[in-house]
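Section: Multi-chain targets

For targets with more than one molecule, the full set of components is provided together so that the structure can be written out for the assembly as a whole rather than chain by chain. Components appear in the order listed by the source. The example entry contains two components.
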Amino acid sequence: MKQLKIICQLLLDLLRELGDQNAYQRYLAIHGRKHSHEEWRRFCEEHLGKRYQRVGCC
Amino acid sequence: MVAALCLAGIALNRGEPINSIWLVLAASCTYLLGFRFYAKFIAARVMVLNNDRATPSERLRNGHDFEPTNKWILFGHHFAAIAGPGPLVGPVLAAQFGYLPGTLWIIIGAVLGGAVQDFVILFSSLRRDGKSLGQMAREEIGKVGGLTALLTVLFIMIILLAVVALVVVNALKGSPWGTFTIAATMPIAVFMGLYLRFWRPGKVLECSVLGFILVVLGIFAGQWVSVSSSLAPVFTLSGVALAIAVIVYGFLASALPVWLLLAPRDYLSTFVKLGVVLMLGVGILFVRPQMQLPAFTRFIDGSGPIFAGKIFPFCFITIACGAISGFHSLIASGTTPKMIAKEWHAWPVGYGSMLLESFVAIMAMIAACVLQPGVYFAVNSPAGVVGTTPQAAVATVTSWGFPVTTGDMEGLAREVGEQSLFYRTGGAPSLALGMAHIFARGGGGRAILGFWYHFAIMFEALFILTVIDAGTRVGRFMLQDFLSHIYKPLGRTSWLPGVILTSALIVLAWGYFLYQGVRDPLGGINSLWPLFGIANQLLAAIALCVATTIFIKMHRARYLWITCIPLAWLVTITFTAAYQKMFSSDPRIGFLAQADRLEAALKSANVAAVKVAETQTLIFNARLDAVVCGVFLILVATILVDSIRIWVGILRGTREARITEVPFVLSRLRPEEL
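Its structure, encoded as tokens over all components, is:
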């Protein structure tokens, strides 16, 4: 049961990582800011701008 | 033992259908052996991974690019980044040779070639602060190598975007249900973008669930549209109309702000991709379908209807991404090395992710081979090969020894809600049919075959379009970078005229090849997919040249066979295939022979007056394809010769083996920090 819980937690973390939610939390922590519409916009401009300059895969 | 038994089982079984579980077991057990022994040997003895050495994610930690990440999360992240449409489409096309050649290439190619390439490049980048393949080529081989690698990537991207766009166009041609469903994903993505921007910022998972529900509703609405007398004609589009729509979409996605369209589509497509791959795996294990296609077909002699060319070298370039893909080296030297917490994590992340990708290719092969062979060939063969009427098509396919009737095809088309399933080249419709059969047997039966078929088409088109929009944008940045040397403002990503101009140039470049593919009487896939396969594997050859150079500089010359065997194989197959595509005297294979035949027809006045201009365009296109093929060869030959010059110099002691690894720093990262 404990292992199943760990696997589920890992899966959820993976989904959060893929959905940039973890990256956003890290961004807030590093800059010492709180979540707001404006912070999310700033994060998107910084993070997504960089991400879509990299080659994707086939 | 199980791997050997299953491989022998699938290789020696003749005359009766085998169960797909044999393939699943053969692949899984071989992967386990490769992972546990071969990859570990490379990690421990050749690369000497060291967990005490601080990785770039620890030394340069900034919370953005550089962030130590749990290895299993990174495994999923890396897999999601390398898994594209290639491992799904390639095996479906290569199934024209039968299931055996493609299956063996996928398994052996991945264990000895593809996974090794990904792993070694990941390691090399990890020891160089996450440098890209182009930067490593420049530093390890020289300026010529670096520039060649950059140019190759740009050219390959143009061909890649054209070929995947062609797959989508062929899947949606004359299909109001499919076209509506995919068209609906655009406003859904914009809605998601606005939702994340204005209503619930940061709630990506919540927004993606909403988006997924809307997309599934879109599939149901598509069925309604397909039977509506007023709406169905609006969404029944020709290949040319769809190609123009995809080109316009590519331009908009490249020029619009990422948060509005590109990013929400990307989130949705990533989650759907992972979910459907998992569903397909579970479905195959649960249903255990029989393989209907034989181990070998008569088309190993090169007369295949889907693409022309013999099993050697064409089977090996048709399946690129499931066995060895050069594009992976760009991912392995991009985001991933900046997130690895400990050096040994590169083992499951680099090598393991590629094995999983290879398994996806095996599942695609199974999905294609569970179809009746007659249906498989009737769906995938172009009208130029099998005849322009359904009667002619079934007669031709039946004459090959794969019986099928127009009644079978009409019944199947009715079941999946399509007007016709003939001439649906490109691999996506037959893959969707195979997946729909597996899903329907898993639950719902044939009554919901149409839903599953369009669900599978939606899944394929969704992430192919994501490849197109992201790829166009990346191509735009690369072009801006190049053009900034001519006129500086063109390099500014915020300068609107520059953005519009470079987006248009990239879209026109791949759009031209797409248009050419749509107008091709042989279906387009026959010329474009081999071109893409050659290009992709030439990029893998460049990556292996870089890896070999690094091994020599690390004084690991006695282990050079690890990279040199796959490199020699890749050079052999790609150069042979490229030579045949340019100079074969068979017009279905050789671009120049095709141009000559059309020119001869023009000169002998065998072409109707209304077709003269079109034939001249076809002649130009065939010659252009030959030139593109030649340019790829010259680029890779340049980097190969440059690399060999350096290898010989170092091994003879006439050149300094200057290693560019960052110095050792002791890791202080604690497990609880991950």
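The interface with chain B takes residues 10, 13-21, 23-24, 26-27, 29-30, 35-37, 39-41, 44-58 of chain A (CB under 8 Å).
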